[in-house]
Amino acid sequence: MTTIASTNTSTLSPAEQDLSAIKIGEWGEREFPLGPRDHPTRRQVIFKQSVLNDIYTHGRGAPEIEVCGVLVGNVYHDAMGPFVFVEANIRGNFSSGKAAQVTFTAKTWAHIQDVMDRDYPDLRILGWYHTHPGHGIFLSDMDLFIHKNFFSLPWHLAFVFDPQNQEEGLFAWRTGNMLIESFVVQKDAPQPTPKVARRVPEFLPNVLGSTASHGSAHPHAETRAEERATEVATPATGHATVAPAPAAPAPTPALMNATSTMSAGPRATQQAEVTELAMRIQTLEKRQRWYTVAMALIVLVAIAWPVVFSAIAMLHSPDDPLAVPQSPAAPSSSSAAAAPNSKHQPLEEAAAMHGASAETDPEARP
Fold it and tell me: What is the model's pTM?
């Protein structure tokens, strides 16, 4: 039964907490998944293409939030040394994902444990994977906290996939630190589209001998000949063999400049990290500017639409809204002059009638 628990790193020295510190005697023997090796290579991690495909599908299914899962497989060795073989993955269902953070909940671990017991009783958890939608390939402080407390053994890996920028990268323990690690792929399934760009280490681990013989200032640097070695799949078996790359072209000023930069050791690494950080900050600033413009447009629309609506209503109104309402007509002066006083009207009418009758009737005269 596979157990999932926080591991204690206090008993591991930096030299022991290293992918190259895996001891052959502790693991079962197995042929290298890409075919027999004739000499040790720097590539000690193998992924099945089907595992990568499922991680891509998982991440692309939720491109706005982080998702996670675990890597499943085992550690083996052949005549040339140990290697880590990632043969399956389990999605972290019931995890709590946000735009820039993902959390393994208790329900997530219970689900992973059930799948391990049911489907992979003879395998082990080799690490975890999660997505960085739009943020690039790196391990945040929270990622490192998770890895150090749950995946601290030398063979534990951390795989990061960015579904928006279509980038991926693998991190492994190197002298007590998590660094970008190279890996190879067993083509057990077709490679999906779009193609994913892979981050590779600037300095490659040395598994062939001491670094002093190579004249390198970096503890994990290899010879340029070993760096140029490529793995080519054979059509007949689908396996891979290590073949030397073509001879390097004549040095150019650009190539000489790049070579001198690589030989600068830790200083070059720091410069590369600063450059990458600056590019990431520029990307975030550009995204923030777009967010600001979008919010300004939303506020403008919210303010303007009542005014526009009122103007449209005024244009369609049958009456002139600007006309001053007319008060009831006041009586004219002539009408006012002709109107009798309501108090004396009966007496004046009686006198007028008496005068008219006296003028027309002669007998009525005294």
Answer: 0.57
Q: What is d(CA 128, CA 139) in angstroms, rounded to the nearest whole number?
A: 12
CATH of residue 189's domain is 3.40.140.10
Question: What digits encode the pLDDT tens for the residues 170-181?
Answer: 999 999 999 999
Give residue 292's domain range. 260-316
Residue 344 in domain: no
pLDDT 10s digits, 286-299: 666 777 788 888 88
Residue 329 near residue 335 (C-beta atoms within 8 A): no
Instruction: Report the helix count and the strand count for the chain, using DSSP H and E.
Output: 8, 14
Separation CA 311–CA 334 (nearest Å): 46
In a domain, 359, yes or no: no
Q: How far is CA 141 from the centre of its chain?
A: 16
Is 117 inside any structural domain? yes
Report the C-alpha gap between 330 and 22 in whole angstroms: 110
